[in-house]
Write a structure and sequence with these properties.
Blueprint (H helix, E strand, L loop, with lengths): L3 H8 L9 E7 L15 H9 L7 H11 L3 E5 L6 H14 L4 H4 L10 E5 L3 H17 L7 E3 L6 H10 L2 E4 L1 H8 L7 H5 L1 E6 L7 H23 L39 E6 L5 H9 L6 E4 L9 E6 L21 H7 L10 H9 L21 H14 L4 E4 L3 H18 L7 E4 L5 H13 L4 E4 L14 E5 L5 H8 L9 E6 L4 H8 L2 H4 L13 H14 L7 H4 L1 H13 L3 E4 L2 E4 L19 E5 L5 E5 L1 H7 L5 E4 L2 E9 L4 E6 L4 E22 L14 E21 L5 E6 L5 E12 L1 H6 L7 H15 L11 E6 L8 E7 L7 H7 L1 H13 L25 H13 L5
Parallel strand pairs: 2-7, 2-8, 3-5, 3-6, 4-5, 6-7, 9-14, 10-12, 10-13, 11-12, 13-14, 17-21
Antiparallel strand pairs: 1-9, 15-16, 17-18, 19-20, 20-21, 22-23, 23-24, 23-25, 25-27, 26-27
Helix pairs in contact: 2-6, 3-4, 8-10, 10-20, 14-15, 18-27, 20-22, 25-27, 25-28, 27-28
The structure holds zinc ion (2 copies).
């Protein structure tokens, strides 16, 4: 295995590629500290731990296990490969053993029966992985009397019955809890009654709107569990105030409960939230599980060993001409898939949760390819193609590597391109590279994990499926192909590099995108900036309404629960729902009186609306699904849809039935939809102005720069599309479409400028729209730097005259109903945000704007008009009062 500096040498090809290296950051080694497993640990389990080589735990593992055992909620936020799972399985499995480990009885007051454990992970795949590792541990411990099962939407009906009656440990996901376990809680009565531990794995993945949904699902879990525990002999409940309809007060959950070592958690089961390294893990965990922050203890001090790590930032070279690139397939007659493979176009995808969603729903395997158009003067090489080169070199040097890509398609592309490269240099190595992603069967994934662990396979190109819990650490190098969205994710992925105590290398390969380009040129934004906190808002009314209905269907919602379920927002919603006849108010609370399952009306993953099914017309085969919100733009009649490297053309899009029929067709063009978007401010919630001093004599009738944040209605309509030749971007045709206007109620941040400011910035009515539009695009690209989001979570509108502000205005909104907190963060960090935006535009070497600065991959106006120079003058004037440096 090469040392850190040797790894860097492989990367730069002995210096030949050194100019692509924009920064090198070094992280020093650390030795680990070990402790002893506590006395209360099941002796049989201890044997198993020893047999598995885990007899000497790291100190943080012991601390977490001790706290959880004593009934404290724990937020465990340490690095990848630091053994988080043992920290929770040791107390949890010991609790299940209960009376079987007789001596334990003396220590835990009140545990007469075996406890049960609920494990939640964001994906089915991860639950399967945990199941396998728990089996291995139990086998090593020769424990045969603990029933551990996964249970989710795929579990056969008869098996569910068995699991409900017999399982001690159930591994599932928030979706199954939401759709099935909670609505059918009576069938799970004996499981909920004995629930001792709830393990929430990958807690940081519950952010934004999805985080809000999961937080409310967990509040519903708390009340159901308390309902059963209140009527059982299980100790620890002080309030026991079951009223006639069986619902009991949850107010005790709002107060910090007096707990100490050895005491039961007075509020119900003990929660252990394991997550990546995030800011304020206890605060996020507390908000997630619905307890006060002081009720959660955080463990952030990682005591596992670590080797030296070299972290390189890498920018692919500019393309001098297309013939510079190896193009095994040639350009003539090639389709988008080929071009993506040969590295002419980088693909865009739907964001970091894309792969998660796919893994869980078996949904769309790719988001299609949208080429960057029109092509800038000197485009940079696609990050995936660059990564394949680096990966091939690493493999040739026997460096065990992972390449993280942004999408399933990216993973497949990098793997196959790397294989192509290796086949010409060393055909024996072709088999040592593979792709890995969530959609594979568990056996396939297990085999790949084993192969990379043992070294049979040298490199995997993977989606973020491998960022999550799966036990693969100790690789030599990690390539991060495209910014993974957050620093939290980046460190998770980086954590895979470096076997215990050994050196490792991490390379971030920038895509041609404003944020990636900014980051490789501003290393401080990566290394000197704290990781993000996990942001979500459980009182988002768009999210909360559905869960109030679900909660009422599970057990009537009582007055005393309102505070816990969202306070005044919840009360307001309950009244609205009652008025509309959705809920009924009775003496003892609010009831759901409809036949349907209330939970079916709330999709905890989606932004709402039925996903559109993409079906091959000839075979009737379901190729994938597209989110309702994106469908008009992606699967309209005539749209090119890419699936598994094959191109299809949409023959018929029936939006009323949520179905798109497609035909397999090899085409040398791609399609771009055009849309019109208007925005209406419905309520201004916050405002501020900047006191910009303009040169000359400009009396400020109103502030030259004003900022707003509030509720908006975004009206959007897809009105047509272009066919564009690949890769020239030449427009082949211009068609119109007849699709309805869609309205999104959401939150937006906006800034408006005075006419005087436009004048000082040298922007006349001809250039102002292009300057505002360019500033809007770049600012959308940079907001993810400050908020825990992805550019795909955002939308924007810019106009030289807005009817509500009566000024030139740029809006950036959360592209999710009700908002997700991102725009609000933009308002709070306004100056940092626009400063970074200006830096990104001025720092880009292009002349007229390119995808790395002011062009947007999802612009509804085909990136027209855009004025890069105008945007620079505008932003400088907004920030400093003068358009010049
Ligand atoms: Zn540029
Ligand atoms: Zn645009």
């Amino acid at each position: 295995m090469p040392r850190a500096d040797e790894l860097l040498d492989v990367l730069t090809a002995g210096g030949r590629r050194a100019d692509r290296l924009t920064h090198v950051h070094r992280i020093g080694a650390r030795t680990g500290t070990t402790g002893k497993w506590p006395e209360w640990v099941s002796p049989q389990l201890l044997n198993g731990l020893q047999a598995r080589g885990a007899g000497e735990p790291w100190t943080h593992q012991v601390q977490a296990a001790e706290l959880a055992w004593s009934g404290r909620h724990v937020a465990l936020a340490t690095s990848t490969g630091s053994g988080k799972s043992l920290s929770y399985w040791v107390p949890a499995l010991t609790a299940v053993r209960g009376a079987s480990d007789e001596y334990a009885l003396g220590r835990i007051e009140g545990v007469r029966s075996r406890g049960t454990v609920l494990y939640l992970s964001p994906t089915k795949a991860l639950a399967q992985d945990q199941l396998a590792s728990v089996y291995e541990l139990l086998q090593a411990a020769e424990i045969k009397d603990i029933a551990v099962d996964t249970c989710d939407g795929d579990t056969p009906f008869e098996a569910r019955r068995w699991i409900q009656a017999h399982s001690d440990v159930v591994l599932t996901n928030p979706d199954y809890l939401h759709y099935s376990m909670l609505p059918g809680h009576a069938r799970w009565a004996s499981f909920f009654k004995r629930l001792r531990f709830v393990i929430i794995d990958e807690g940081h993945s519950y952010r934004g709107v999805f985080g809000a949904h999961v937080a409310l699902v967990l509040r519903r879990l708390q009340r159901v569990v308390q309902y059963y525990a209140g009527s059982s002999t299980y100790s620890g409940y002080s309030n026991g105030s079951s009223n006639s309809n069986g619902s009991s007060s949850l107010s005790s959950l709002d107060k910090p409960s007096a707990r100490g070592d050895g005491a039961q958690n007075a509020g119900g089961p003990t929660f252990i939230v394991a997550s990546a390294t995030t800011a304020e893990p206890a605060v996020s965990a507390a908000r997630l599980i619905g307890v006060p922050p002081e009720a959660v203890v955080e463990i952030v001090n990682d005591t596992s060993p670590r080797g030296n790590k070299t972290f390189a930032l890498w920018q692919p070279p500019q393309l001098v001409g297309f013939d510079e690139e190896a193009q095994p397939h040639g350009l003539a007659g090639s389709n988008i898939a080929d071009l993506a493979l040969t590295g002419l176009v980088d693909e865009w995808d739907l964001g970091p949760l894309d792969a998660l969603d796919d893994a869980l729903t078996g949904g769309p395997s790719d988001a299609g390819v949208i080429t960057d158009a029109p092509a800038p003067e000197l485009p940079r090489r696609a990050a995936t193609a660059e990564a394949a080169d680096l990966l091939a070199d690493l493999v040739s040097h026997s460096v065990r590597s992972l390449a993280f890509t942004r999408s399933r398609r990216g993973a497949e592309n990098v793997a196959s391109h790397t294989q192509d490269l290796l086949s010409s240099v060393n055909p024996r190595l072709v088999q040592s590279v593979a792709a890995y992603r969530g959609g594979y069967l568990p056996e396939e994934r297990r085999a790949l994990e084993e192969a990379i662990r043992t070294g049979k396979i040298k490199a995997l190109a993977t989606t973020n499926a491998l960022e999550l819990g799966v036990d693969i650490s100790g690789l030599d190098a990690v390539l991060i192909v495209g910014w993974p969205g957050t620093r939290v994710s980046m460190w998770q992925q980086a954590g895979r590099a470096g076997r215990a105590g050994a050196d490792g290398m991490v390379v971030f390969v920038a895509r041609e995108d404003p944020l990636d380009t900014y980051l490789v040129n501003h290393p401080e934004a990566i290394f000197d900036t704290p990781v993000e906190a996990t942001v979500f808002d459980p009182t988002n009314p768009y999210v909360l309404a559905g869960h109030l209905c679900s909660a009422a269907a599970e057990l009537p919602v009582t007055d005393s629960e309102i505070e816990y379920l969202g306070g005044p927002v919840a009360l307001d919603l309950l009244h609205q729902l009652t008025e509309r006849g959705t809920l009924r108010r009775r003496e003892h609370g609010w009831y759901w009186t409809h036949e349907q399952n209330a939970a079916d009306f709330t999709n905890i993953r989606g932004a709402g609306g039925t996903p559109v099914q993409v079906v091959e017309r000839e075979s009737g085969r379901l190729l994938g699904t597209v989110d309702a919100a994106q469908a008009d733009g992606q699967v309209h009649n005539g749209a090119v849809y890419v699936h598994q490297g094959e191109t299809y053309v949409v023959a018929e899009y029936n939006y009323a039935e949520s179905i798109a029929l497609v035909d397999r067709e090899s085409v040398a063009y791609t399609t771009w939809s055009r849309d019109v978007t208007s925005i209406e401010i419905t309520k201004t919630l916050q405002e501020k102005s900047w006191n910009v001093q303009l040169p000359g004599t400009y009396p400020a009738a109103s502030p030259h720069v004003m900022w707003g944040f509030g509720s908006v209605d975004v009206h959007g309509q897809v009105i047509g599309f272009n066919r564009r030749r690949i890769p020239s971007g030449e427009i082949l045709s211009n068609d119109s479409l007849d699709l309805p206007v869609r309205t999104l109620n959401t939150a937006a941040v906006w800034w408006s400028v005075s006419a005087d400011l436009l004048e000082v910035a040298g922007l006349d009515m001809e250039e102002a729209p292009g300057a505002l539009h360019a500033a809007e695009h770049a600012s959308i690209g940079l907001l993810p730097l400050l908020a825990t989001c992805d550019r795909w979570d955002l939308g924007g509108v810019s106009t030289a005259m807005h009817i509500d502000t009566e000024r030139a205005t740029v809006f950036v909104y959360d592209a999710l109903p009700g908002g997700a907190g991102f725009a609000e963060r933009g308002f709070a960090m306004a100056r940092e945000w626009l400063t970074a935006t200006l830096d990104a535009i001025t720092g880009c070497g292009c002349v007229d704007g390119c995808p790395a600065c002011v062009q947007s991959p999802k612009c509804g106006n085909g990136n027209n008009p855009l004025s890069k120079a105008g945007a620079i003058r505008l932003l400088r004037t907004v920030l400093t009062g003068t358009p010049r440096l």
